[in-house]
Recover the amino acids of this structure.
C-alpha cells in the first residue's frame, strides 16, 4: 500500500503535474519515521535524560579532542611545578587549573587524556558483551535442545564465580593492556546478556507472528534477524547502559590495584591509585579523577533511566 503526497489547490481543481512530481512514500516508511520522532520526543521530555546526554557528549568530545584540549602532554612534567594546588587555592596558578601531582604533571591534562581509557573500556566492553550475549542468547532461546543446554551450562559456570574474582584472576594471567581489559570485561559480562536474551527469545518465539513465520517455512536466520532481534533492541540497550556504568567503576578498580592499563597510559583509576599515597598532603590528585569517574557514571545512568522509561510502556505513563 502506498501513500501519495500531493498538492491540491483550494479552488478544487487538481494540479496533475504537481501530483506526479510529488514524492511517493510507502506507509512502512511513514510509520518508521513517526516511531523515530516519538522515540526522540519521549527521550528529550525527561530532563534527567537530557542532562545525561549532555554529560556524555561533553566527555566523549573531550576524549576525542584531548590533544587539542589538554594544555600539556601525557608525561610532561616539571619538578619545579610539583605539588601545586588548584588555581583557586593559595599558591595555585592558572597555568595548572586543577593543580599538579608529585612529579609536576598537570592534573587537568591527565584527566582529559584519562577519559579515553574509561570511555573506551565502557563502550567497547559493553559492545563485545552485547554481541556475544545476543548471538548466543538467541541461539539458546530459539533452538533449545542440546544447544540451549550447552550454552546455559557455560553461563551458569561463569555466573557461579564471583565477578570481581574472575576479572582479577584473568587480568593477572593476561597482563596489563587496554585491549586485554576490554576483552576481559566483554567476555565476563556476556553471561548476563545471554541469560536475559535467552529468556526473552523463549517468550517471543511463542507469539503468533513467530509461529506464523515458522509455519510458512521461514528460515531460522531470517526469523531471528527480521522478527526476533528488533524486539530485543530496547531491552538490551537499557541493560547495556547500566553495564557500561558498572564497567567504568570496575576498570577504575582494576587500575587502583595495578591490573588495568600500564602506568604510562593515563587513566582515572591509575591517578586514584597514585594519589592515595599523598591523600593527606595532595588531596586534589585523587579528588578530581574520582569526580570524573562519578560524573561519567552519572551521565550513563541518567541515559539508561531515560531509555528504560522510553522502552517500558508502564513507566512511560508516569
Amino acid at each position: 500500500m502506498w501513500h501519495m503526497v500531493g498538492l491540491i489547490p483550494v479552488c478544487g481543481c487538481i494540479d496533475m503535474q504537481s501530483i506526479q512530481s510529488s514524492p511517493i512514500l510507502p506507509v512502512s516508511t511513514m510509520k518508521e519515521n513517526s516511531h523515530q520522532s516519538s522515540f526522540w520526543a519521549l527521550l528529550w521530555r525527561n530532563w534527567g535524560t537530557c542532562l545525561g546526554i549532555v554529560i556524555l557528549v561533553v566527555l566523549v568530545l573531550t576524549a576525542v579532542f584531548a590533544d587539542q584540549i589538554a594544555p600539556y602532554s601525557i608525561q610532561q612534567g616539571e619538578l619545579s611545578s610539583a605539588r601545586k594546588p588548584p588555581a583557586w587555592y593559595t599558591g595555585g596558578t592558572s597555568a595548572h587549573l586543577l593543580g599538579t601531582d608529585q612529579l609536576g604533571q598537570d592534573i587537568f591534562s591527565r584527566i582529559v587524556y584519562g577519559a579515553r581509557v574509561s570511555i573506551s573500556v565502557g563502550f567497547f566492553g559493553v559492545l563485545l558483551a552485547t554481541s556475544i550475549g545476543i548471538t548466543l542468547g538467541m541461539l539458546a532461546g530459539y533452538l533449545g535442545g542440546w544447544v540451549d543446554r550447552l550454552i546455559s551450562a557455560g553461563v551458569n559456570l561463569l555466573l557461579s564465580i564471583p565477578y570481581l574474582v574472575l576479572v582479577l584472576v584473568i587480568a593477572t594471567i593476561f597482563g596489563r593492556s587496554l585491549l586485554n581489559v576490554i576483552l576481559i570485561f566483554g567476555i565476563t559480562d556476556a553471561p548476563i546478556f545471554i541469560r536475559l536474551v535467552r529468556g526473552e527469545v523463549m517468550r517471543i518465539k511463542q507469539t503468533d507472528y513467530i509461529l506464523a513465520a515458522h509455519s510458512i517455512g521461514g528460515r531460522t536466520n531470517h526469523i531471528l534477524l527480521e522478527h526476533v532481534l528488533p524486539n530485543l533492541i530496547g531491552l538490551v540497550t537499557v541493560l547495556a547502559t547500566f553495564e557500561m556504568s558498572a564497567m567504568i567503576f570496575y576498570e577504575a578498580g582494576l587500575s587502583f590495584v595495578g591490573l588495568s592499563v600500564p602506568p604510562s597510559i593515563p587513566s582515572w583509576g591509575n591517578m586514584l591509585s597514585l594519589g592515595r599515597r599523598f591523600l593527606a598532603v595532595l588531596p586534589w590528585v585523587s579528588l578530581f579523577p574520582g569526580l570524573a569517574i562519578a560524573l561519567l557514571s552519572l551521565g550513563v545512568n541518567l541515559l539508561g533511566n531515560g531509555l528504560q522509561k522510553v522502552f517500558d510502556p508502564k513507566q512511560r505513563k508516569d
In short: The longest helix spans residues 107-143. Strands lie at 2-4, 24-26. The chain is about 70% helix and 0% strand. The first strand starts at residue 2 and ends at 4.
